[in-house]
Design brief:
With 165 residues, the chain is an alpha/beta fold. It is 43% helix and 19% strand. Strands 3-2-1-4-5 form a five-stranded parallel sheet, sandwiched between helices. It binds 4'-phosphopantetheine. 4'-phosphopantetheine binds next to strand 1 and helix 4.
Length: 165
């Protein structure tokens, strides 16, 4: 069985992420959306919330499952018999860092990284920008699943206003 990981923070999942997950699901027998839950970073959504939103978003894809991981991605892949990591590349600016990570991961384990070019309509999309725009009242409804937009709106309202920093 050819199994791939789609790793990320997914804070929150966007339509751009789902485009990559869907395309990976056509390339591999099974795709594991691997949600990085390292505690050091501050997030708008908890690991449990990010995983729950991804599970809902991935419901249409029968060969996709969602799992959280801590520590090294290569360790998670080895433990789950995952042979490949799928990453979306939005622009040349993504390439330097993604190449560095791919080569580091390959030096740590027998794992291939497969780069998938982001569909043009999502090439500007990033969770960080979605949060910033939504935090200032901008309309991000076309960029994230509808139920994620509802949770994002609710979370930002709880937080009281625009995001800090
Ligand atoms: O959505 P992001 O923030 O770009 O996701 C980054 C992620 C989670 C894929 C990356 O930080 C990662 O793989 N973290 C796990 C720790 C690890 O393996 N670090 C070495 C990478 S070469």
């Amino acid at each position: 069985m050819r199994r791939a990981a789609c790793p990320g923070s997914f804070d929150p999942v966007t339509n751009g992420h789902m485009d990559i997950v869907e395309r990976a699901s056509r390339l591999f027998d099974e795709v594991v959306v691997a949600v990085g839950v390292n505690r050091s970073k501050s997030r708008l959504f908890t690991a449990e919330e990010r995983i729950a939103m991804l599970e809902q978003a991935c419901e249409p894809f029968s060969n996709v499952r969602v799992a959280g991981f801590t520590g090294l991605l290569t360790t998670f892949c080895a433990e789950n018999s995952i042979q490949a990591i799928v990453k979306g590349l939005r622009a040349v600016s993504d390439f330097d860092y993604e190449l560095q990570m791919a080569q580091m991961n390959a030096s740590l384990a027998d794992i291939e990284t497969v780069f998938v070019p982001t569909s043009p309509e999502y090439s500007f999309l990033a969770s960080s920008l979605v949060k910033e725009v939504a935090g200032f009242g901008g309309d991000v409804s076309g960029l994230i699943p509808g139920f994620v937009n509802e949770r994002l709106t609710a979370r930002l309202a709880e937080r009281g206003s625009g995001l800090e920093g």
